[in-house]
Design goal:
alpha+beta; elongated
């Protein structure tokens, strides 16, 4: 390994061959780096210092990063290279054992403390120095980038970077790669001379086959942090990794290879043979994976579209249940996206979310909450603990949410037809937010949001004049998906709602050219098996098929599953008869797909349909699957239908 002396700023490698060993003298004291003292010896090799330039102008993986510019100092400020480090002994310097060093380092909580600690040492190995840089990067970098750019002007930090740049060839593999990883995390410009030196040296050692599997993993992780990693280098890493036994890879190495394959597959490379082997090996190691590794691998499987890796996906999803309380926000989003992409739905995973979300709702990132609600909505999971907690979270934090997040929080309440105990406060807060930020919503987002409200009898009459205005309709048409059939159905249902349920509404109406005649309800389509059983029972009850009609289109947008007509005296009329119809009975044959999962709670679309049919004059009779599924024969079904349709006879 290399040894760095603070007092004389020496760097040398005790693990490298003597021919590669070097001693670099930067100055006699740290204040030389600050220009407070100049040595007497002259040299033509100029020493250069780093300074921060235009911090806000650069991006690093879509985040701010820093460009370090090296400035030349006086020629008197020299770098001396001495060839043999064997005459340099630890006894001449204040030396700290590595184990003790890292124990002390891990106890420090700020970069200021770390740099002060480093300044107290006269000699340290390059492994220790790079470990310090890594610790600093963990403390100083968050999702928004570098917290304190002034850190890079610190003289101790600059002195370390100087040595890593100019003595990169003498660093141990561990020191080199740990330093590279830390500096990438600190958003140092990849085009700077410091980073170019470290990257070049890493790639040279990769080409010479000098990196172990652990070092290959570290290099791969570092390159993946770059905006545009060199795919050829990534492929080289994978090829070197494959030279070893894939079954012996650590979970960290498995994750790194998955991430590399994501990048190279996007470039058109085909790795399915390797992926099949990797998936097989990972399956056997699922129980050993940490929350982070579970999340990363599931995310990779989504990106790589590994829809055939059913056993691995299922095993990872099952294993993720125990990690739900320990996932970070980002990790939980990855897991939820995998559940959605691969069509996974597990009751124990939902139960884990039900325990986790209420406890964490006020600290969870809004995007994570949005993803939880998307998961519940798409899987039709009506979890009252989750929905009640999200309602409370919305009431307290709505002003900090984006418009997309507002919609993601609220729409599932309408879709799954649920009003939480705090409904009054919830929709009061929503109305306040809409009054303040209405113009910030994208047209389709606003329409989806308001439509979801009417599903649960929350009527946004103050905002409907905007929705029905020609200008807003033009904006809807101009943005994808335009005025397709689903969008027109939402508009029509909004119009029907205010017509039937809000007689006090006197605002603009929806023009007839935007109204559709029939509602497309793929989610609430008929359960064919249940529908057949009901029709068989009706035939036994009414004796002739002419006395009921199925899938009847009404003039009022909705399709009735089964319609029965009665005259004034209550006798059944032929379905085709138009005169003397006194009563119309609408049988709603509700299969499981019209209810929330594992629940008897109707979905919002079906609930509003039945509500509107009643207001349009129909007698609505619900035939839910859970009442009829236990009936064994046609006679029992006929008796059941008799009691439901004609309770008084």
């Amino acid at each position: 390994m290399a040894l760095i002396s603070r007092k004389s700023f020496q760097l040398y490698s005790s693990s490298a061959p003597a021919s590669r060993s070097a001693l670099m003298t930067l100055s006699r004291r740290l204040n030389f780096i600050s220009g407070q003292h100049k040595p007497q010896n002259c040299s033509s090799v100029a020493m250069r210092m780093m300074c921060v330039k235009d911090k806000s102008q650069y991006t690093f993986r879509r985040k701010k990063h820093v460009q370090l510019q090296m400035q030349s100092l006086s020629a008197n400020e020299a770098v001396h290279l001495c060839g043999d480090m064997r005459n340099c002994t630890k006894s001449n310097n204040v030396w700290m054992d590595e184990q003790l060093f890292f124990k002390r380092l891990n106890s420090l909580c700020t970069s200021k403390e770390i740099l002060y600690f480093l300044s107290s040492l006269e000699v340290m190995s390059d492994t220790m120095a790079s470990g310090a840089l890594q610790k600093i990067s963990e403390l100083e970098v968050d999702d928004n980038g570098l917290k304190n750019p002034a850190l890079l002007e610190n003289e101790v930090f600059r002195a370390l970077c100087f040595q890593f740049e100019f003595e990169s060839s003498n660093l141990s593999n561990t020191g080199l790669l740990n330093a590279l990883q830390a500096l990438i995390r600190l958003r140092i410009d990849p085009q700077s001379t410091l980073m170019t030196s470290l990257l070049s040296e890493s790639e040279e050692r990769l080409g010479r086959g000098q990196l172990t599997a652990e070092h290959l993993c570290a290099l791969g992780e570092s390159l993946l942090e770059l905006e545009s990693p060199n795919c050829a280098t990534l492929e080289q890493i994978v090829n070197h990794m494959q030279e070893g036994d894939i079954k012996s890879w650590s979970p960290r190495e498995v994750v790194m290879v998955y991430k590399i394959l994501e990048v190279t597959v996007r470039e058109g490379k085909q790795w399915q043979s390797l992926l099949n082997r990797l998936n097989s090996v990972t399956l056997g190691a699922v129980s050993q994976l940490s929350p982070n590794f579970v999340s990363e691998i599931l995310n990779s499987l989504v990106v790589l579209r590994q829809t055939r890796a059913v056993l691995l996906v299922t095993a990872l999803c099952k294993h993720s249940v125990q990690h739900v309380p320990y996932f970070t926000d980002h990790e939980l989003v990855n897991v939820l996206e995998a559940f959605l992409y691969f069509g996974q739905k597990m009751q124990n995973f939902t139960e884990a979310l039900e325990r986790h979300v209420p406890r964490s709702i006020h600290t969870m990132h809004p995007q994570t909450v949005s993803k939880v609600m998307q998961y519940c909505c798409e899987k039709t999971i009506l979890s009252k603990p989750i929905f009640d907690a999200v309602a409370e979270g919305f009431i307290s934090s709505a002003d900090r949410l984006t418009t997309d997040q507002i919609a993601a929080y609220i729409i599932p309440f309408g879709t799954l037809n649920y009003l939480p105990p705090s409904a009054s406060s919830l929709f009061g807060k929503l109305e306040t937010v809409l009054h303040t930020r209405l113009r910030h919503f994208q047209p389709h987002t606003l329409l989806n949001l308001l439509h979801s409200c009417v599903l649960i009898q929350r009527y946004p009459t103050n905002f409907l004049p905007k929705i029905f205005s020609p200008y807003f309709l033009q904006k809807l048409q101009a943005q994808p998906p335009g005025l397709n059939r689903v969008v027109l159905s939402q508009l029509t249902q909004l119009f029907l709602t205010v017509t039937l349920e809000c007689p006090f509404y006197e605002g603009p109406k929806l023009l007839s050219k935007y109204q559709v005649k029939a509602c497309p309800t793929p989610q609430s389509s008929l359960d064919v098996h249940l529908f057949k059983r009901v029709k068989t029972g009706l035939l036994d009850l009414l004796k002739k098929r002419i006395y009921f009609a199925s899938e009847v289109s009404t003039p009022y947008f909705y399709v009735v599953d089964i319609e029965i007509k009665l005259d004034e005296e209550g006798f059944v009329l032929p379905a085709a008869q138009l005169e003397e119809v006194h009563r119309r009975i609408a049988l709603c044959v509700d299969g499981q797909n019209r209810f929330c999962a594992h629940s008897h709670n109707l979905l919002g679309e079906e609930a509003i349909k039945q509500r509107h049919l009643q207001l349009l004059g129909y007698e609505v009779v619900q035939i839910p699957f859970f009442e009829i599924e236990s009936l064994q024969n046609t006679r029992k079904i006929a008796d059941y239908l008799h009691k439901k349709i004609f309770p008084c006879t």
